[in-house]
Amino acid sequence: MTRWHASDDLVTRYTDGSLPEPDAWSLEKHLESCGSCAARVSRAVRATAAGAVVADVRTAVLGAAPAAPARAAAPTASPALTSKARLARLLWAAGPAVRGAWPPAVLLVAVGAIALAYGGGFAGARPLLLAIAPVVPVAGVALSYGAHADPLHEIAAATPSGGLRLVLTRTTAVLAVSLPLLTLTGLLLPASGAPGAAAWLLPGLALTLASLALASYVGCRIATAVIGGGWLCAVLAPPLADPGANLTARLAAQVSRCLDGASAQGGWAVAAGLCAALLVVRRPAYDRLEQR
Amino acid sequence: MSTIRVTGLRVRHRRTLALDGVDLAFGPGVHGLLGPNGAGKTSLIRVLATVAEPDGGRVEILGEDVADRGPRGRVRRHLGYLPQEFGYYPGFTVREFVAYVAWLKEMPAAGTDAAVERAVARVGLADRIDAKVRTLSGGMVRRVGIAQAIVNDPRVLLLDEPTAGLDPEQRVEFRELLRELGATTAVIVSTHLVEDVASACTEVTLLERGRVAYRGTPAALAALGASTGARGDSPLERGYTAALGAHRAPGEVTR
């Protein structure tokens, strides 16, 4: 795999510290993948003053942990295990919502909408999906972060990853699952007077960011309930309250009012931008979020 | 230099004052935090873990003021924290749980596997490392909690009631681990078991109603008990009741 090996001169200068830093870095990079050179360098280092210190530390560490398996010195894991580890890390980053009951719920919304449209012959499937879709990522956020959603919250909050960064990583995972899936579902549904399948993307993003911004004041659970509930009320309540014409048409009209046209979409874009800005300002609050 | 320095610390918990003007300094060693329920032990540990915000005073850890975001992030890399109560993801094995926390602590990926195995071995769970956490007993889960706290070889280790749920043999082993960790680390252990303090701690801090009632070595606390003839089943227990009594006596009127 490697094409070159460290010369004796290079090893000597590395061990006595006279090698220029870039060369030392290059050698260290090489040692990560070349067992024979690594063995030669460590033999050479063991002969120096630093070697004695390392030996002392090693004895102390091994003495302190007699039960520790002596695997630290063994070659690192196989490539298969590494890619498995990479996948594990991706799932860790995704957070509890994406590993838990939330993806099946998203899938249920998608499958349910298609079943309504083609199995049940319900004409209002797309408007209904567009009405519900923006709440889906908001629900994902609710299940991602905070003492109520994350059993490890108290431990995570004391780590450098805790706070806004962890929230944003998990939110990204939630959006990455829900945006394509629900937009694709919308495309498969008959239009029946409703806006395009992608019309909910900006509102979905804006409501998600609004939830995060509000959560910095009141916590994730209340924030997502207020934002998600508020949206559902705004879009579902008027058609339900109006006794006139058929419900499907009224729902489609209300969804169009909220989502269709340049001014509505522009409004959502501005809202998303404002919420993002507020979130940046509120960043410090996330370090101490949802404490008892 | 002290690893942790707390000055004038005030913490409100719900509507009561959990800590009221506490000044403390901790260096390397095992520091026992004793006190009746509600004395402020958990509040102090949570503030030191940087998860709770103080309402007043200053908290310096490793020479940095943790009220500021930047330093707080740096300090958190060197923290180990076992909360009094913690949960776990149902599907995780012991190895995954500890590795996940190592990832949260931003440990370099290359050394994580070895660090995880070492931490799990140190709490005596090497043979259960690939078992699901939910299949373990309460005492074992607590040891997993200790493993996640020490996985990054923290310079400040905060353990809230770590011996709760451990059987006597496990407690003995755990105290050995504490002594070992205390050689290089500032370990702060809250406990209501006076025996934990007697055998593992280099220093005792006794909290009562949000104030420091006593500080000293376990031996000095035991001597205090012997000299006053207070109630208790062991020298240290007598010292504990004596110190509490001495602290309460003048303050009883003002409350």
From TrEMBL, chain A:
Keyword presence, Transmembrane: yes
Assigned keywords, A-Z: Membrane, Transcription, Transcription regulation, Transmembrane, Transmembrane helix
Listed Pfam families: zf-HC2 (PF13490)
Source organism superkingdom: Bacteria
Entry's transmembrane regions: 105-122, 128-147, 167-191, 197-215, 222-241, 261-281
InterPro entries: Anti_sigma_zinc_sf, Znf_put
Domain Putative zinc-finger: from-to ranges: 8-38
Protein name, UniProt field: Zf-HC2 domain-containing protein
From TrEMBL, chain B:
Presence of keyword Metal-binding: no
GO molecular function, one term: ATP binding
SMART domains given in the database record: AAA (SM00382)
Superkingdom assignment: Bacteria
Protein name: ABC transporter ATP-binding protein
Similarity section: Belongs to the ABC transporter superfamily.
InterPro entries: AAA+_ATPase (IPR003593), ABC_transporter-like_ATP-bd (IPR003439), P-loop_NTPase (IPR027417)
Domain ABC transporter: 4-234
Pfam families referenced in this protein's UniProt entry, alphabetically: ABC_tran (PF00005)
Gene3D superfamilies (UniProt xref): P-loop containing nucleotide triphosphate hydrolases
PROSITE patterns assigned to the protein according to its UniProt record, in alphabetical order: ABC_TRANSPORTER_2
UniProt keyword terms in alphabetical order: ATP-binding, Nucleotide-binding, Transport
